[in-house]
Amino acid sequence: MLIFLNGELVPEDRAVVSVFDRSFLYGDGLFETMRVFNGKPFRWQQHLERLQRGAEYLNIKMPFSADALRNFANELIAKNQMSDALLRLTLSRGVGVRGYSPRGAAHPTTVMSLHPAPDVRAMARWKLITSSHRLPANETLAQFKTCNKLTQILARAEADAAGADEALLLNTDGFVVEGASSNLFWIDGGVVCTPPLVSGVLSGVTRTVVLEICQMLNLQDIQSNVAIVDLKNTEGVFVSLSSLGAVEAISIDAHTLEISPLIARIQQQYRKLLTES
């Protein structure tokens, strides 16, 4: 396996960064994960734009242009012969002085790696639980995929311990925000609903794709807050993530959920977009 590291493709065993890299020490960095299908990263532009916005907010200068990164990604995919994969792009502030101050960290680290992808044609149905951990409402950093995901990690550990596939996180206002690694949707009165960004939700690229699909299928969509007790009694629940697209939920905290035919329509349209990209 070849890894892209700071402008070079190197074997996996040589793809190493300093123990003083700030992403390792403090989670001082950003990342994006995107689906590669037929040799092309799906929604590359949207992923890269979010990375660029995050880099600007964190004041990390991106070492490579957008075109250069895309060319490197294409080369990485071709040389690894992985036309169907997950592409992880990581940007770290790099090495600086000891301590929290970013002073002196003038050479960011950029890494891209490929990983086996799940089959989007498989009709996965997930069991969800409610995590005990909370996300802050109105959190500006929530709009970026930072390398510090401890709350999500702890939530996913709870899901693993419960034999569930994903954990739902509530915010400090008591509303359901998102999954540990996914965005949340539900069906209410035939309307596709999702939490608003101000609730502390990540503006997921696949979330945006789902909202686009709603327009394509003439499905009404709204952004609203929901309590966990109300979510369990809706007409259907699903989550969205780059690796699998739209995944239907069959239960929350062992409470069986209704199945909505709208979810299957959204899944079918997502697979069509992915294969035609």
Q: What do these coordinates show?
A:
By secondary structure, the protein is of the alpha+beta class. It has two domains: 2-116, D-amino Acid Aminotransferase, Chain A, domain 1; 125-276, D-amino Acid Aminotransferase, subunit A, domain 2 (D-amino Acid Aminotransferase, Chain A, domain 2, Alpha-Beta Barrel), CATH 3.20.10.10. Helix content is 29%, strand content 31%. The chain is built from seven helices and 15 strands. The strands form two sheets. Strands 7, 8, 9, 10, 11, 12, 13, 14 and 15 form a nine-stranded mixed beta sheet that branches. Strands 2-1-6-5-3-4 form a six-stranded antiparallel beta sheet. The longest helix has 16 residues, at 261-276. The chain is globular, with a radius of gyration of 19 Å. The two termini are 25 Å apart. The mean pLDDT is 96.
Low-confidence segments: none
- Classification by helices and strands: alpha+beta
CATH class of the largest domain: Alpha Beta
In CATH terms, the superfamily of the largest domain is D-amino Acid Aminotransferase, subunit A, domain 2
For the CA atoms, what is the radius of gyration? 19 Å
Distance between the termini: 25 Å
Number of helices: 7
State which percent range the strand residues make up: 25-35%
| Total DSSP E strands | 15
H-E order: EEHEEHHEEEHEEEEHEHEEEH
- Biggest sheet layout: 9 strands, mixed
Q: Fraction of residues in helices?
A: 25-40%
The overall number of domains is 2
On the 0 to 100 scale, the average pLDDT is 96
Which fold does the CATH topology of the largest domain refer to?
A: D-amino Acid Aminotransferase, Chain A, domain 2
Under the CATH scheme, which architecture of the largest domain would be assigned?
Alpha-Beta Barrel
Gross geometry = globular
